[in-house]
Amino acid sequence: MNVLVAGATGRMGGRVAAELARAPWVQRLRLTGRDEHRLAQLARVLGGREPAPEAVPGDVHEIAVAATRGVDLVVSCAGPAASTEEPLARASVDAGASYVSLNDDLTAAERVWALDGAAVAAGVTVVPGCGLSPGITDLLLDRAATELGTLDEVAVTVALSAADIASPAAARRALGALSGTATYLSGGRRVTDRAGGSPHLAYLPEPVGWVETVKVAHPGIVALRRTHPEVSEATFRLGLTERAAMDALRAAAAVRVDRAPALRRLWTIAGGPARALLERLPGRAGGWSAARVDVWGHNDGRARQVTLGIVDRLSNLATVTLVACARRIAAGGIRPGVLGIVEAFAADELLGELDGRGIRAARLEPIEV
Amino acid sequence: MPTRYSEPMLARVVRLAGAALTGAAAVWFARLLAHSKVPPPEGRWRELRDEDRHRA
User: pLDDT tens-digit profile of A202-212?
Assistant: First the structure.
């Protein structure tokens, strides 16, 4: 199978490219990224395979059509997703290639979901959001749902380490998540509110522990309404495990740094040194990222709550999941169209594969006194 | 000898802004220290086992 890795020069993209370069099911590997020098370096490092990876440098908007030509599967780690996801997905569908990505942007996800008809017509499978969240959190939700007959309410909480938003694209994405609108379900209806509000402490798998989180927009709401239309309440929350970095992010979002290009540039430039300082201040969790999914529902007429979580380095959580999804698409048998991760793949099998790679889900149980 | 009131306006504004920023940073740092004490664990995280799949 001929595979294209978009955004290969990024932190996640490099890891994904390395995994795919070792994968026996990948016949030809093509890499794209904005940074020509780093892309050439990556292609050299992964050059041990035959044929050697092909590097196509350039911005997604300029090279999407050319880069996807002759490819069977596009694996996208390009960011920020708000501007890269839809052009890449569209180019993939037009080129007759299946598509998986780490997309975590709601607006971009909705544009990709609109390609469903085109994907079915082209006979390709598109699965946006195969990282930590959306991705693993959807798998945990599906696992929790098997224990509950009827679902009423869902809460998805993600805590990232500040080190995970080190790249300019990730830093802008985090800022955008807290600056725009938060989308959630209330009374069965989709509701929007200002993102970054309703601060709430959430207890995530150790060593992350308690993290302050705020409401954000999340593409999981689209898949949730497809897979569990009975859910009437759903919230999506995000926090940084380093409290000082979270304060800085919230302050930057509150003064709408994302709206002024000069301030946005300053945020990107000053982000690196400032982050290094903020990570050393009190309230830090050592670079771990985690997610928690709370599901409330009914089983045999009794109200129950199931809480599942996961913790690891984000680069492991996101890239292992993305590559596992890519491999399943390559193996065939997945129906064409735009699908959520649990619509495309068996959640238990995927969680089992993550388990085999040392990424284990956990259940929150009450402490017996 | 210059008095407090003859200080140029710009210098005064800079000095006041500096004091305000230092004060805000001090309050923020105090809040960080205060919040570094977190509540006790909400529960115990236990790794999922295969039999969890069949829990009722």
Answer: 999 999 999 99
